[in-house]
Design brief:
Layout: E1 19-22, E2 30-33, H1 35-40, E3 44-45, E4 52-53
Antiparallel strand pairs: 1-2, 3-4
The chain binds zinc ion (2 copies).
């Protein structure tokens, strides 16, 4: 089982406040966001299609 990581800062997604979802553009690569990056509105990037979202 692969560890989920924040796509923005690369931190492991443990505990609460984290989210993990599929890319809204290509629906493929999973994108993780930690609570801190969500809070700060850090952008994420899909490694598969290059989609960048808030
Ligand atoms: Zn993060
Ligand atoms: Zn994508």
């Amino acid at each position: 089982m692969a560890e989920k990581k924040c796509s923005s800062c690369g931190i492991g997604l443990h505990g609460e406040g984290n989210t993990y979802f599929k890319c809204p553009e290509c629906g493929g690569e999973g994108i993780g966001r930690c609570a801190q990056c969500r809070d700060q509105g850090v952008k994420y990037e899909c490694k598969k299609c290059g989609f960048v979202g808030p």
